[in-house]
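Comment on this:
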Amino acid sequence: MRLLLVEDEPGMAAALGRGLSAEGYVVDRVADGPAGLEAARFGAYDVVVLDIMLPGMSGYSVVRTLREEQNWVPVLLLSAKDGEYDVADGLDYGADDYLTKPFSFVVLLARLRSLVRRDTGPRPTVLEAGGLSLDPATHRVQVDGADVELSPREFRLLEQLLRAAPAVISKDELLDQVWASGDDANVVEVYVGYLRRKLGRERIETVRGVGYRIAD
């Protein structure tokens, strides 16, 4: 498993590099934003661990540029910023997960396992089903051609439902793909309710005992 670590603090980078290597990852380390972007573009990595505060180019800019270039390598952001808007910004720019410093190495490993389990194949430019459209690059969502504003978490939930369409996706899969942090499965029901209020109740079907799917 190849991992790119973009971290400019030498002590942190060395400790993470040793720990991840001991867990079986092949780790490449770079220490600034431009080098991280270049490596992520051409390194064929399974996952990228990316600090936000970097010399030359922020982690936000790195992940946003990758997504604009249709590069969908899984990205886990690391940051000392723990405000809800900081997390939202990271997800809005296209990161797959966000971990606040200081963090548990055990939790980091769990987050990485979750990311690499996800489908990392080529992603369509625009996802469409059941009168819904979602553009992962621009974060634009439309219902029958009309724009709809979603929170970052609602956006990620709808994205996974659209990627699975027309198949059913289980609560456990959605919890793993969207939250990846040990939340109770009931949170999925709550956010499906939020989406139904914004998109229309008929747009998301419940398949009892199985999960959810986008209505045909």
The mean pLDDT is 87. Residues 2-117 form a domain with the Rossmann fold fold (CATH 3.40.50.2300).
